Amino acid sequence: MREKFNKFISLLMVLGILSSSLVTTNSLVLAEDVNISSQDLVDVYVKTRVNVRDETGKTIVRKAQVGEQLTGYQKGSYFYFSEAKSLYRVHTNFITSHLNENIIIRANVNVRDMNNNIIGKAYASNSLSGYVKGNYFYTTFNNRAAKIHINFIIRPGQLKEIFIANNVNIRDSSGKLVAKAHKGESYYGFLSGNYYFISDSKNSLPINKVHKNFVSHEPVKTTIAVKSRVNLRNESNKVVGKAYQNNVFSGYYQGNYFHTNFNNQKVKIHKNFVQASKTQLYRVVRVVDGDTIIVNFKGKDERLRLIGVDTPESVHPDKSKNSYLGVKASNFTKNKLTGKHVSLEFDVQARDHYGRLLAYVYLDNVMFNKTLLRSGYAQVATYPPNVKYTKDFLDLEREARNKNVGLWSQGMALNNSGGSSLPPSSSQAGKGKIKGNINSKGEKIYHLPGGAYYNKTKIDTSKGERWFNTEKEARAAGWRKSKR
Q1: Which CATH number covers residue 11?
Q2: Is residue 305 among the annotated active site residues?
């Protein structure tokens, strides 16, 4: 028994000796050399990308990146350090005691030598090369070793994103005009005195400046035009559409993207594909009816009539002129335009004799006047001299009428903006006398009063059948005359 006890004591002593040969500091375990202490550990930096190997050098465990800080000690041609209580090494050719970097001066500051004597001044936006150690940035100044307190320097990665609140001149450090910054654009910079020194990227040094009165710390809404065809992406970076050259959008810059709305969803466009737009967007305050809206125009709410189109009445003072179809057209426009930002195109005459604005209205770069016609919620109404798109409008109306879409399928007749305020029915009241029937084969046939089938023919507007005022109107809509 005593012999076993003596062996146990001997084992404990061996373990004690082994443990005393380990040096542990900040989770660094160094068993390579019993003479290494925490005071002998140094910080180094990786100067070029390098393989990290295990203690024997046989196994590559990972890559060390440029600028990465390592804490350990040098032995022979290798620098040893630890991670997760394991010892690793890199060749000393790939490390440096000081990592040089480019910085910029935040504000005017004294430059001191190693004895703390003032040997000169560095000025805001000056760039210097050197390294940070402790509370100082060490550099060379007038061929002398010098230092600057770190409170007066900016590293590129420390630049903050700022936004231009209104169009402003960009000047160089001497005050010379070098470019224009447009409302909403984003830059990266820092404040010094009355100016923000800015750059296009947070990783590049600012060399130009804008006055602080023109800078915002929050995104600023603005209008842009697309430079060339580009994908529109949602917040998950999935392509959801395309934008084309000169398309206009309202939104804001943030990071590398311009954020806007498209088809009622949030999308983004890379800022390399957009530029400041001269086209103004106006908010639709309210929709009056299918062809009339209220827009905030140059700071004032104004009534605007869409050029070249006419929808059935829904808000006429004479209630007998309002119709169920007018309500449907009004609701269509309300759903599409209320609260949206639109651009306007004017023709020869910008206002009518009532003082209303007359314009072609664009929503997401598509003319809404054409959308009304294409969707079958309006007819063409031509009033010279505003006739720029009359041919296009007539083609769209004819196409919608032939396809029997929108209100054409519910009894809208050419040049008929009045009618009942009730939903359309098989009643003839308020409609023409010519019956537009669709037979079992899908043929569109119109019947005149006195015709063989006139009295027997019933009109069901839910099937696309309708009434006409004239034979010309019926033929234009795609119906043929009954043979009897």
Answers
A1: 2.30.30.40
A2: yes
